[in-house]
Structures are given as structure tokens and as C-alpha cells.
Design a protein that fits this description.
The complex is a heterotrimer of chains A (322), B (294) and C (385). Chain A is an all-alpha fold and 322 residues long. Helices cover 70% and strands 0% of the residues of chain A. Chain A has 14 helices and no strands. Chain B has one domain (2-280): ABC transporter involved in vitamin B12 uptake, BtuC (Orthogonal Bundle), CATH 1.10.3470. Chain B is 71% helix and 4% strand. Chain B has 10 helices and 4 strands; from the N terminus they run ααααβββαααβααα. Chain B has helices at residues 2-33, 40-57, 64-87, 95-116, 141-163, 165-175, 187-212, 220-235, 240-260, 266-280, and strands spanning 121-122, 131-134, 137-140, 215-216. In chain B, strands 1-4 form a two-stranded antiparallel sheet. In chain B, strands 2-3 form a two-stranded antiparallel sheet. By secondary structure, chain C is of the alpha/beta class. Chain C has helices spanning 2-18, 40-59, 83-96, 108-120, 154-168, 183-198, 217-226, 237-249, 266-271, 291-304, 310-329, 334-343, and strands at 27-33, 63-65, 68-70, 72-78, 101-103, 125-127, 147-149, 173-179, 202-209, 230-233, 255-258, 279-282, 347-349, 352-354, 368-373, 376-382. Chain C has a 7-stranded mixed β-sheet with strand order 9-8-10-11-12-15-16, with helices on both faces. In chain C, strands 4-1-5-6-7 form a 5-stranded parallel β-sheet, sandwiched between helices. In chain C, α11 (310-329) packs across α12. The longest helix of chain C has 20 residues, at 40-59. The N and C termini of chain C lie far apart (69 Å).
């Protein structure tokens, strides 16, 4: 078994080939009616969820914190990009990428401020700060009538399958490179033992802030993609229930694992759609699966392990994994 | 002017006492296990439903106190059961797994109740409440009862923690859980008892809440659960007195921000204020920074 | 390895589920309803009425489509009273299940996103109960082509209520308490304030709460201090019950006036004696019923054991309108159905005579004012805009 996986891992061209194939498929779906619009939206949702999961995994999984406010960054990205596409710069060239980058940047700036403010807090207190942040964002949006307040906004539909695929690949690529760099080691060190890391000279403060900023950037990116596919955004879509859903996906797939985030996002989104006929009972079954999973595999399906293709070559020959 | 403030203060105390009661459950469990029991809000909701079932299904008309005790026992047992089944196996796993399991359990409880009762239910009155008026101040006997019961339970819990053997054991476990078994204290049993008491308080809060706002639905525990959690942390999670303080502060801030400012800003102001408190006192008002061993 | 197999099987299941349903030819009509969430009673009423209608048509042989009779198949989706879910359900009904037309959603916050989907895919849609103007208007304020409704709209209702308060209740000071996070109450509150003040009334307090709140004591104390004669509560039935109860507890004696969102009979069960005597605006009244309406009330009560509320009546009318359009068009084609719908000269429905204004999806309808008396809805007056 492991020999098979080893040989699969050594196939360094497999991953780029998969990506190219996926992109080609996405483009084909745009020109030929292979999938109906509903299936396309489900796939786009899967893509958005993957980005959300991977970005939250950076803070919750690799860095070991407990952030509950990710839906807040999603909201910021969604609204910022919607403002751009509806009011400030409607219908310009490269509208979608500009809007997405703008949404991500706004979220990142706020993430930076939040990281600064909460530097001194640890653990569960950080959870509270992120939770309070989420409530504040939701309430602030409801009160600002320029963004439609509680009635929401109707951004144009710009997101499509190829763009979503592009952003998913970009997110994975950036975060994967970050995680296997010096910065990534710093974050893992913080998770294992922050004081020891500090004593060893790891610049924990900078690492924490950077992790937060990147995580919130991609949260905003996901939010922007979400806004431009959904016709309609309102503050109620970005509440604690949404944050909880993202948390469930991350822990289902596995903490500190990119492959895990993909798996978690895919399983959660698809299951949620497939189990539609069950009505509210599907929200009993999904958490039940999660609880059972936690009891038998506390770190998630792929906790702390990684799909061989994501590992850089030097990691492959390290010997048996824990 | 004075009467307006006085009436709003009464509103704040009533709301605050319910938040405090729920926050107590969070703090108790955290103090002993360093774990946030996210299923607590849903146990609160079950307390209200348990009261509904007892009041409606039983052919005998039971007095208020009996129903309260029954609800506390039933929800307490349920809390201890969840601990035994879902949390105990994860005691040595990373903390986050236990938290996520708690979240999952809460969702299961909430959605099962939602599937069984998709409509909000009406909580019948357990006794007739009269309204007392003094000048333009009004307070109903029900409100007085709720505040009284909540305060009574809080005082009772304080007594339990400070003056009984069980309380001493609980405090010992929160201080150093590894040495405690060496002293002959059955840790597992104590933890189960802690959950029993914490969940019982949550159930009682649910019943009181259901009586005060007689429309109960399966999702009523979600928002209140998170709010009470914030209250517990503001006061300093792990500290019983902190939980009570936090609950009243949250209730007070919510009511007073509506009383003197446009009501649309209520959530914005309450959470910003709480955020500010946490930034200046990162461990909560009465919390202790944990000693970190290097 | 196990993981890969698991994922693959899940995806395969998804693919299978995605493959459309075969089966006997039928006319598929979609129903986008609030079956779970904040207002399940509204969704249940809608579903009951729709199913009653479909059963009646199918029992008579089916829908006549240019000579052949085909049964109607109702495709029901649950939007959970949430905007994004409403949009997803609309997308599924229209793109995947290929319904000829969509009935619902009822709540304005859900109807608006669903209407955008319907308009984009050129699928006719009738919302039975959504009163917010934006449901049938697009971004620029122009009427949408494919979206219709079976009820009156908020500006009309606000005028009716404001005039009622000024002329019948003879009150000149009013307070408003509404859910700032919900589309319909928000719109109605602001419109009422505008019309009331235009006609000489004075709004002494304009307070808000947010969806999910149960404690309104702080806002009510603030309102009580201003001593209004009337309190306008454009809230859904669950909030209305809670607010009136707490208001009476605080000793507030003002007259309560509500919007059509009160119309579920649950409001009486949950409100008890505290909501007695309140007025609200509604789409129809069982008391001044026409023969068509009386038959509907009798059939509904016989099948479900309780009287239909206005959501049920409007859904029944919406189903009637759409099937009339399909019959006239002679085929299950969305464009043809839409054109036939807009041209219906006169439809005798349960809630009155329905006719769409030219170039608009809004019908000309009348309103009634009801009062909650002795635990029942009692007709007081016809709305005068």
C-alpha cells in the first residue's frame, strides 16, 4: 500500500496534469451544456467552501488557535466586492478578479487590525474575540443603509466555474507554499509550544499576525466569489451558523491538512445537497457523523497528514509518518 | 426620569439573571475540564421543552417547585450522559476535538428537537402572575419569581463550591487534575457530578426563560448560548462569581443601550463594549491568567 | 485508501441523485415554501393549499393541455425562511427539475432573491404572499417580466393601515416596533411612518429589535415613556404574540395594530388574551366570503381540520392563476404560460377578483381590516387606501 502511494507521490507531473484537466473541464462546462446550472452552482459552492476551509485551517489547524469568526471575513469580502461591482466600478474589464482581490484585501486589513488587538489573548479568549468580531460585523452591516442594511444587496453574477477553479488552485498553491516554508514552521512551532518557540527566537508575533492576515484574505476571497454567484447577499447569511458550518468542514476533513480541507469541504457540501429529501434530519445526521468521527479520529479524517502530491519533494523521503 | 431608569434596571436584572444562570454552567465545566461545552445552550433549550412536556403531558397538576426540580434532574442527567459518552473518551485528545464534539452534540440535540417540533410551542402558565405597579413601575410576580429563583440558585451554587466537600473537590480538580486522584478523590465521578450540576442549572434557566417568554422553539438556545458564553468569558471563564458578574453586565449593557440610544445599534454597542473589556483585561474581569509551565 | 473510496461513492451518489426523474408525463409546478425556520406555519399553509388544489385538479382527470389531460406534479422545496436557501431552491426547481412555473416564496426576504433567479431564467413565478414592492421590480425600478404576485403591495397596505388608524381608531400618536433584520417588517414600518406623518399623525417612537430576540422589555419601556395611542407592529406572528404579551405586562394600554404578517391563526394561540382587541390588515376574511371562497374554506377545513389563513387562500389563488394560464397557453412552455398569465382578463379567486395591471406583476386587490376578538378573527372594515 505505502509503496503504491510512494510511487504515486513520485509522479510529480500528476498534480499539474490534474489541474490542467480540471481547468479544461471547467472551461468546457462554460461553452457546452454538459452540466445544468444547478450542478454548476453546487460545484462552485464546493470550490468556495474549499477556499474557506483551507484559509480557516491555517489559523485553526496549523496554528492551533480557535477562531470562530471566519464568516465575518467572508461577509467583509462579499460586501466589499459587491460594492465594487454594483456601485463603484460596474462593468469594467477584469471585473471579477478585481472585485475578488478587493474583497480579499478589505478582509485582510480588518484581519490585521483584529490580530493586533488580540495579540495578548490566548486560546478561548481569542475565540471570544473572534465571536464578538463576527457579531459586530453582522450588526454593522445591518445598520449601514448604503450597503442595503438588512435588506441586502444584489450583486451581478460574475463567478463561474473556471474562475472558481482558478481561485481554488491559487489559494491552495499559496497556502501550501506558505506552510512548507520557514513561516509554516514558525506557525507549527507556535501550535506545539508558543513559549518554547519564542525562547528559540521564532518571531511569534509576526507569524501570528501574518497567519491571521492571510487567512482573512482568503476568507474575503471566498466571500467575494460567494457574493457574485448568489444574486443576493444579506447579513443573515454570515452569522454564527455559517461560521459553525465552516468549523465543521475543517474539523471533519482534518486539521493542519490541505487535502483534509478539500475532503471536508467536498463531503460536507455534497452530503448536504444529497440529503435534501431528509429535510431537517440531515442536520442531525451530519453532526452525528462529525461526533462519531471525533470519537474515533479526533484530528479529523486526514488530521495532520497530507496528500502526497501537496508535499514538497524534500518532505517525501522523511521516513514513516506519525 | 428616575422611574424610567428604574424600570429599565428591572428589565436588565431579569435578563441578566437568566444570562448569569446559563453562564454559570459554562464556567463550572470549564473550571474543571478546561473545556467549553458548546452543547450547553441546547441543554438550556431542552430545559424549556422538558418543562413544557411535564406541564402538559402529566395528568396531575404539579406545583412549580416540583417541576423545577424534575427539570433540573432530567437535564442534569442528560448532561452527565453526554459527558460520559462524548467527552470522556476525548479527555486525552487535543482540546479542540472535545470542543468540536460538543458543538456536534449541540447540533444533534438542536436539530432533533427541530425535526420533532418545527413550530414554536406555547409554554402554558404554571401559575397566575399578577402585575404589581408602583407609580409607573411595573413588575410581575413571575419576574420576581424568576429573579428570585435565579439568585437563589446562584447563591446555592456558591455555597456548594465554597462550603461542601464536593465543591472543594471541584476546585481541586481545576487547580491540578493530575494530583487529585492521588488524594483519593474519584475524579471521573466528580466530573460527572459537575456536569450534572452545570446542566441542571442550564435546564433551570431554560425553564425560567420559557416561563418569562412563553414561546419556545428548538433554535432558542443557539443565540443565547453564544451570548452567555461571551458573558462567562467577560467575567473570567472558570470563575463562578465571574460568570454571574458577566451575565449581569451583558444584560445591563443590552438593555441600557436600547434605553438611551437608538435601538438598532444595540448589538453593535454591546459587542464592541465586550470586545473592549477583553482587550484591556484579556483574561476577563475576575479571571486568572493560567500559569503556563515552560 | 478508505477515504478515497468513501469520497468516490459519495460523489457517485450525488451524480445519481442529480440525474433527473423520469416517470409519467405530467405538468411540473414548483413550490418554494418556508417549511422550516422562523415561520413554519406560513410554509405549511402554503403547502396545504397547493396540495389541496393539485388533488382537486388531478381527481377531475388532470390539467387540460391542448386536448390531452395531464396530471399536475407538485415539486416542493424548503427555503427555511432564509434568503440564500430560497435562491438555491429556486435554482434547483428551475434548472434541474425544469418546472413550468414556480409558486412562492412567501416571505419577502426569500421572494426577492428567488424572483431574480426566475427572471434570469425566464421562468414565470407567482408569490402568493410577498408584499414588498421589490419582488416584482428589478434594480432599476422597472417591473420584472416573469414575476407576479397574488396579493397587494406594501405601499398600498401602509396607506390602508395609516388611514385606518387616523380615521377609524382616531389616534394621532403612534409608536412603531419592528424587526430591523427582516425585509417585510422593515419596509412596512418605514412606509407606515411616511404615510402616517404625511396625513397629520405623529410617530413618537420608532424602535427596533432583531430576528430571534425574545426580550422586548427595554424597547417597550422606552415606548411606554412616550405614551402613544397606537403601537404599530408589522411583525410575523411569533414576534407579534411575544411583543403584545410583554407590553401588557408592563402596563401599556395602547391599541395594537398589525400588518398582514399577523395572519396566521397561531398568533391567537401564542398571543392569548394579551393580543385581544388588536387590529390588523389582511387579504381576505372568511366572513365576507364569496361562494368560491366558501367552497375553498369548506374543502380546506374538511381536509386539514382547521380553517385556512390568508397564505393558504393566496396560494390557492396563485395555483389557480398559473393553471388557468397553462390551460390557455395550451402547452407547458414557460414563455407561453407567462404571456397567458399577463393577459388573464379576470380571475375569480378566493381572495377576490384578480387581474394583473398591464405591464406589471402586481394585481389590483382589496384589503380588509380584521380584529382579534374572543379568540377569532372578526371583520371590521374594508381597507380604504
Amino acid at each position: 500500500m505505502s509503496r503504491f502511494l510512494d510511487s504515486v507521490a513520485r509522479c510529480r507531473w500528476a498534480l499539474p496534469a490534474l489541474i490542467a484537466a480540471g481547468f479544461a473541464f471547467a472551461l468546457a462546462c462554460e461553452t457546452f451544456p454538459i452540466l445544468n446550472d444547478y450542478s454548476k452552482i453546487v460545484l462552485i459552492t464546493v470550490g468556495i467552501n474549499i477556499i474557506l476551509c483551507v484559509s480557516l485551517n491555517l489559523v485553526n489547524g496549523y496554528m492551533g488557535e480557535f477562531s470562530v469568526g471566519h464568516a465575518g471575513f467572508m461577509a467583509l469580502g462579499a460586501y466589499a466586492s459587491a460594492l465594487m461591482t454594483t456601485k463603484w466600478l460596474p462593468a469594467c474589464l477584469f471585473e471579477l478578479p478585481l472585485a475578488v482581490v478587493f474583497g480579499g484585501t478589505v478582509a485582510a486589513v480588518i484581519g490585521f487590525l483584529l490580530a493586533l488587538l488580540s495579540f495578548k489573548t490566548r486560546g478561548d479568549y481569542l475565540a471570544i474575540i473572534t465571536l464578538a468580531f463576527l457579531m459586530i460585523v453582522k450588526s454593522a452591516i445591518e445598520n449601514i443603509s448604503y450597503v442595503g442594511g438588512p435588506r441586502g444587496m444584489t450583486p451581478p453574477v460574475l463567478t463561474n466555474l473556471p474562475w472558481t477553479f482558478f481561485w481554488v488552485v491559487l489559494t491552495l498553491w499559496i497556502i501550501r507554499n506558505l506552510v512548507y516554508s520557514k513561516f509554516g514552521r514558525a506557525i507549527t512551532a507556535i501550535r506545539e509550544d508558543e513559549i518554547a518557540a519564542n525562547a528559540m527566537g521564532v518571531r511569534t508575533r509576526e507569524a501570528k499576525i501574518l497567519a491571521f492576515v492571510i487567512s482573512s484574505f482568503f476568507g474575503g476571497v471566498a466571500g467575494a466569489l460567494y457574493a457574485q454567484v448568489n444574486f443576493f447577499i444579506d447579513p443573515k447569511s454570515f452569522d454564527i451558523v455559517k461560521s459553525t458550518e465552516i468549523l465543521v468542514m475543517v474539523y471533519l476533513g482534518g486539521i493542519a491538512s490541505l487535502g483534509g480541507s478539500i475532503i471536508g469541504a467536498v463531503i460536507f457540501t455534497i452530503l448536504l445537497q444529497v440529503l435534501q429529501p431528509l429535510g431537517t434530519w440531515r442536520m442531525v445526521i451530519l453532526p452525528l457523523i462529525l461526533v462519531l468521527l471525533m470519537l474515533f479520529r479526533p484530528r479529523g479524517i486526514m488530521g495532520m497528514r497530507e496528500l502526497p502530491w501537496f508535499l514538497p519533494v524534500r518532505e517525501l523521503f522523511k521516513g514513516p509518518k506519525r | 426620569m428616575f422611574f424610567y431608569l428604574a424600570q429599565q434596571t428591572i428589565n436588565a436584572i431579569q435578563l441578566g439573571s437568566i444570562y448569569a444562570l446559563i453562564a454559570l454552567g459554562y464556567s463550572m465545566v470549564y473550571g474543571v475540564l478546561v473545556m467549553i461545552n458548546f452543547a450547553h445552550g441546547d441543554l438550556f433549550m431542552l430545559g424549556a421543552f422538558a418543562c413544557l412536556l411535564l406541564a402538559v403531558l402529566l395528568p396531575v397538576h404539579l406545583p412549580f417547585v416540583v417541576i423545577l426540580l424534575l427539570v433540573m434532574v432530567v437535564i442534569g442527567l442528560l448532561g452527565a450522559l453526554i459527558e460520559r459518552v462524548a467527552y470522556r473518551p476525548l479527555r486525552d485528545a487535543p482540546r479542540v476535538s472535545a470542543i468540536i464534539t460538543a458543538l456536534g452534540c449541540g447540533l444533534v440535540i438542536e436539530n432533533t428537537t427541530l425535526s420533532l417540533s418545527p413550530y414554536p410551542q406555547f409554554m402554558p402558565k404554571l401559575f397566575d402572575s399578577t402585575t404589581l405597579t408602583y407609580a409607573s413601575l411595573t413588575i410581575t410576580t413571575l419576574q420576581i419569581l424568576i429573579i428570585g429563583v435565579a439568585l437563589g440558585l446562584m447563591v446555592g451554587l456558591d455555597f456548594l463550591i465554597r462550603k461542601t466537600g464536593f465543591g472543594m473537590a471541584m476546585r481541586a480538580i481545576s487547580f491540578d487534575s493530575r494530583t487529585v486522584p492521588l488524594m483519593g478523590i474519584p475524579v471521573n465521578r466528580m466530573i460527572s457530578l459537575t456536569f450534572f450540576v452545570g446542566a441542571g442549572l442550564g435546564g433551570a434557566a431554560g425553564m425560567l426563560y420559557g416561563l418569562a417568554y412563553p414561546q419556545i422553539s428548538a433554535t432558542m438556545g443557539v443565540l443565547i448560548g453564544w451570548k452567555a458564553f461571551i458573558a462567562a468569558v467577560i467575567g473570567g471563564i472558570g470563575s463562578i462569581r465571574g460568570a454571574v458578574l458577566g451575565g449581569f453586565i451583558l444584560g445591563g449593557v443590552e438593555v441600557m443601550s436600547v434605553a438611551y440610544l437608538p435601538s438598532t445599534y444595540r448589538d453593535l454597542i454591546s459587542y464592541s463594549l465586550l470586545l473592549a473589556i477583553l482587550i484591556f483585561k484579556p483574561y476577563g474581569l475576575l479571571g486568572q491568567p493560567p500559569n503556563q509551565k515552560v | 485508501m478508505k477515504n478515497i473510496i468513501f469520497c468516490a461513492s459519495v460523489l457517485a451518489l450525488a451524480g445519481l441523485a442529480g440525474c433527473g426523474s423520469g416517470g409519467t408525463p405530467s405538468v411540473k409546478i414548483g413550490l418554494n415554501a418556508e417549511l422550516t425556520g422562523e415561520m413554519p406555519a406560513v410554509g405549511a399553509s402554503s403547502r396545504n393549499a397547493a396540495e389541496l388544489f393539485v388533488d382537486q385538479v388531478n381527481a377531475a382527470g388532470g390539467l387540460d393541455l391542448g386536448g390531452t389531460k395531464l396530471p399536475i406534479k407538485l415539486d416542493i422545496g424548503d427555503n427555511g425562511a432564509k434568503a440564500d436557501q430560497a435562491r438555491t431552491v429556486a435554482q434547483r426547481l428551475i434548472s434541474q427539475d425544469n418546472v413550468v412555473a414556480m409558486i412562492g416564496p412567501n416571505a419577502s426576504s426569500c421572494a426577492i432573491p428567488a424572483s431574480i433567479v426566475a427572471e434570469n431564467y425566464k421562468c414565470p413565478m407567482i408569490s402568493p404572499w410577498s408584499t414588498n414592492s421589490k419582488t416584482t421590480l428589478d434594480q432599476g425600478g422597472k417591473p420584472k417580466e416573469y414575476v407576479f404576485r397574488a396579493c397587494f403591495i406594501d405601499p398600498f397596505e401602509a396607506r390602508v393601515l395609516a388611514k385606518f388608524v387616523l380615521n377609524n381608531v382616531k389616534a394621532h400618536t403612534a409608536a412603531v416596533l419592528y424587526d430591523v433584520a427582516s425585509e417585510a417588517p422593515n419596509g412596512q414600518a418605514n412606509l407606515f411612518k411616511e404615510v402616517f406623518e404625511q396625513n397629520g399623525g405623529k410617530i413618537v417612537a420608532f424602535e427596533t429589535y432583531t430576528t430571534g430576540d425574545r426580550d422586548f422589555s427595554a424597547q417597550l419601556t422606552k415606548i411606554k415613556a412616550q405614551n402613544p395611542e397606537v403601537i404599530f407592529l408589522p411583525a410575523y406572528y411569533n414576534d407579534a404574540a411575544g411583543i403584545t404579551r410583554q407590553a401588557r405586562q408592563q402596563g401599556i394600554t395602547a391599541q395594537f395594530v398589525g400588518s398582514d404578517a399577523w395572519s396566521s391563526p397561531e398568533v391567537i394561540t401564542l398571543g392569548g388574551k394579551d393580543i385581544e382587541g388588536s387590529y390588523f390588515c389582511n387579504h381576505y376574511s372568511t366572513e365576507i366570503a364569496t361562494p368560491v371562497a366558501k367552497k375553498f374554506v369548506a374543502d380546506y377545513t374538511a381536509k386539514y381540520g382547521k380553517a385556512p389563513d390568508d397564505v393558504a387562500a393566496l396560494t390557492y389563488d396563485a395555483m389557480g392563476l398559473i393553471t388557468e394560464a397553462i390551460r390557455t397557453a395550451g402547452k407547458a412552455d414557460r414563455q407561453a404560460v407567462r404571456d397567458a398569465l399577463a393577459k388573464i382578463p379576470k380571475y375569480e379567486g378566493v381572495t377576490g377578483t384578480l387581474k394583473f395591471q398591464p405591464g406589471s406583476g402586481d394585481p389590483i386587490k382589496s384589503a380588509v381590516i380584521l380584529q382579534i376578538k374572543d379568540g377569532k378573527f372578526v371583520w371590521i372594515a374594508n381597507g380604504q387606501p
